[in-house]
Each structure stands twice: as C-alpha cells, then as structure tokens.
Specification:
Layout lengths: L7 E6 L3 H10 L5 E6 L2 H10 L4 E5 L7 H11 L4 E6 L4 H9 L5 E4 L4 H39 L6 H15 L4 H13 L9 H4 L7 H7 L2 H11 L4 H9 L20 H16 L10 H10 L7 H13 L4
Parallel strand pairs: 1-2, 1-3, 3-4, 4-5
The structure holds fe (ii) ion.
The site of fe (ii) ion (FE2) has 5 residues, from loops.
Length: 322
C-alpha cells in the first residue's frame, strides 16, 4: 500500500514511566511514529537525531523543567510544535510560555485522553501548515540562487554542488539537522551578493585590476544584506558574510581567524573552494582528481581548518573518481 504521507513523529517526555506508557498507548496504531523519553536530556538527543513533528512534555521533571526543555528544542528544531502538560500550580509559567510563542498548547493535569488527543491532532495540523510554508520558502530561495548562476555563466550548477558537498561535510561533522537546513540555504545563497557585481567583472576572461577585485570583495557584505532583509536566520547570514574568510586570517571581508569563523561558514567555504577548483573557467581548466587532492592538502591551516580538509578527503575518497 502506498502511504499518502511520511509517518510523522510525536515525542512524549515525562519522568514518570507509567505516564509515558499510558500516553503512548493512546496513540498506538494511528499512523504515527511514537517516541518516548524519560528525561529532558534523552529528549534533546532524539530531537537532534531525527525530525520530530510534535513534542509533548511534562513541566515538572528533575534536572530541567519542561519550559526550558521546550525552549532548547526550539533552538534545535524550530518547526517542532510544542505542547506542555502542566498542573494547576504551574499554570502561570505555562501561559507565559504560550504568550511568548514558546509553546503551542497546554494540557492540564489530570487530563482525559480526548484532551490529549485533540492537542496532539491540533499540533500535527499546525506542523503540516508550517511544513508547507517552508516548502514554498525553499522554492523561492532556490529560485534566487538559480538567478545568480544565470548572471555568472561559468558557475552553472555550482550552488547545487556546493550544497550537496556542504551537507556531506555537515553530516560527517555531526551538525544537528536544523543547522544542516541553514547550511543548505547558505550554500544556495552564499554568492547572492554577486547580483551587485557588474557582469563585465564577473565574466572577465582576463586577470582583474585591483579596483575590480575590490568590487568582487564586496559580495559577501552585499549578500548578507540581501539575506538579512529576507529575514533568513543568523546562521545563513553568517555563512554568506564569512564564506571568503580564511583559517589563517588572510581572507575577506574581515580577516577573521581560525575558530572565530563560524563552523557553518567554514563548511560552506570548504565546499565552495572544492567545487570551484574542479570547475572549468574561461581562463583555466578545472583540476584533475589528483591535482585537487594535492591543492587541498596545501590549503590545510591556510585557507581551511585541518579538520575540514581531512573530512573533505574522507568524503572525496568515498566518491567515484571525478
Ligand atoms: Fe563567493
């Protein structure tokens, strides 16, 4: 049988195991993937590992309160819809969380199964709306990236390849799923500031003058303005702004050094460099596989962090020769 929809995941968090067992029994055989966690830390690990549509958390738990857990889940996975189970004594905390947008609904203890069912159903509906909005957003972002490639004829397919490689790097470096999404957007849009660079400079089949190079060097800052105005996340803004920084501090626009460059920007920068080296340009042919390995080797601790070069090597060795 063909499923209409990928099974959505609902995560229940409670330190009382019998509550967890009871809650999950209500939702059995309803086409959902049910997860349970008996501590906030276990819940955070699950959210990091897979995408969760709805999380239902108790508030009173040892170690971390539900409100705090849900705030941390918001950071890791903004699209997860959050429901809090709360006692009367905690109602004011819960209402505050709802009013500040941290929590979508609450279920008051002791609850009836119909109340819990309704809250989760509403949560899933909310999640689906958010997902469809996200798909539209992604389509718009992707289209913008394609228009930039039209402007710079030699870079056709570059953004897609950078995104693929950056996501492979992010996965190897165990970057959480939500950050990986930001890395994908950052990869698509890293050069969107090139929209402000005259085509005569972008497509010049000769060496550039110092003034022309100064104009090119503006594209990370111009790009950052574009993604900031498009309300994209701080991570995407950093990727665009810092994708030409170098590990040894000799990059632009700020000459940031080493770990001061956010990891997400280092990842996209590594993927960008790697793809640019193998691309044919009007003024030179792309590097062969052997040349690529030796050139990336010379970039260790200069253009790129040693960890990134090593991870790139691991990924390249796993793929077919170019
Ligand atoms: Fe760039």
């Amino acid at each position: 049988m063909v499923k209409e929809r990928v099974q959505e995941t609902v995560l229940f968090v409670d330190d009382e195991e019998n509550y967890l067992a009871y809650t999950s029994s209500i939702f059995r055989n309803r086409g959902l993937d049910i997860l349970t966690a008996s501590s906030p830390l276990e819940a955070l690990k699950l959210v990091q590992r897979q995408s969760v549509a709805v999380v239902v958390s108790d508030n009173e738990m040892p170690g971390m309160r539900g409100v705090e857990l849900l705030a941390r889940i918001k950071e890791l996975s903004p699209h997860t819809v959050k429901i809090m189970v709360t006692g009367r004594a905690d109602l004011s905390t819960t209402l505050e969380a709802i009013n500040s947008g941290e929590v979508f609904r609450f279920v008051l203890k002791p609850w009836k199964s119909a109340d819990m069912m309704r809250a989760v159903k509403d949560g899933l509906r909310r999640y689906r709306v958010l997902q469809s909005l996200k798909r539209e957003d992604e389509f718009i972002l992707y289209s913008l990236a394609q228009t930039i490639e039209l402007k710079d004829a030699s870079t056709k397919g570059h953004c897609d390849r950078v995104a693929t490689l950056a996501l492979q790097l992010a996965e190897a470096l165990r970057v959480p799923e939500e950050v990986r999404r930001q890395i994908r957007y950052g990869s698509w849009l890293h050069d969107c500031g090139k929209i402000g660079v005259p085509e005569a400079i972008l497509n010049a089949e000769r060496g550039l003058s110092e003034e022309e190079f100064q104009v090119i060097k503006k594209h990370p800052e111009w790009g950052r303005e574009v993604v900031r105005k498009a309300n994209l996340s701080g991570t995407v803004q950093e990727i665009v702004l810092y994708h030409h920084e170098r590990f040894d501090g000799k990059g632009y626009p700020f000459g940031l050094e080493g770990e001061k460059i956010p990891l997400e920007a280092q990842i996209v920068s590594a993927a960008d460099i790697c793809d640019a080296l193998t691309m044919d340009r009007p003024y030179r042919k792309g590097l062969s596989r052997d040349e690529l390995f030796s050139t990336l080797g010379t970039m260790k601790s200069k253009n790129l962090a040693p960890l990134l070069v090593d991870t790139l090597f691991d990924i390249l060795r796993e793929t077919e020769p170019l």
